[in-house]
Amino acid sequence: MSEITGHTGLRNGATAVVNESYSFACMRCGHGWEQSYEIEHHLDADGLEFVRYVADGRVVPSPLSRPACQNCDGHVVRIMRAGQVSSVLGAARRTHPTPPAGPVQAPVPAAGEQQPKEPHHWHLSDLLHPFHRKAG
Questions:
Q1: How many Cβ atoms sit within 10 Å of the Cβ of residue 24?
Q2: Which one-letter DSSP state was computed for residue 134?
Q3: What is the pLDDT of residues 82-104, one digit of tens each?
């Protein structure tokens, strides 16, 4: 799930600092992202150990507690080992390159063909129709 990249210099009274990276995928909107954290290990006044997560120089909540999507704020987020999102994005770019921007032309109907008067509006029932079982 995480990738430990090594220890960094101690700071802010930390007894140890470990770097970990995670990949995240939102199950609500499909957004994927990666984030690296510095996990600082500290001792409190009673000598009990606690950790503090730091991302991009800011103290943040543990990504394992209740992650939120950066795109839609949804909380149904899958956490994976580092590199999962970037490898999928790289593969997608290789198989489906982004077409160049520019005007898009609608196909012109052949002679004698009729153009539909209104575009078809899809409904959930239309999409689920192939999955309906016939009573029998």
A1: 20
A2: P
A3: 876 655 555 555 555 666 666 66
Q: How far apart are the first and last CA of the chain?
A: 47
37: number of Cβ within 10 Å: 20
Q: Where are the beta strands (DSSP E) in 1-136?
A: 3-7, 16-26, 32-43, 49-55, 58-60, 77-81
Residue 48: CB atoms within 10 A of its CB come to: 8
In sequence order, the 6+-apart residues with CB closer than 8 A to the CB of 50 are 41, 42, 43, 44
What is the C-alpha to C-alpha distance for residues 90 and 95, in angstroms, rounded to an integer?
Answer: 9
This prediction's pTM = 0.53
DSSP state, residue 124: H
**Quick one: tokens of 2?**
């995480």
Quick check: 115 pLDDT over 70? no
Neighbours of 31 (CB within 10 A): 16
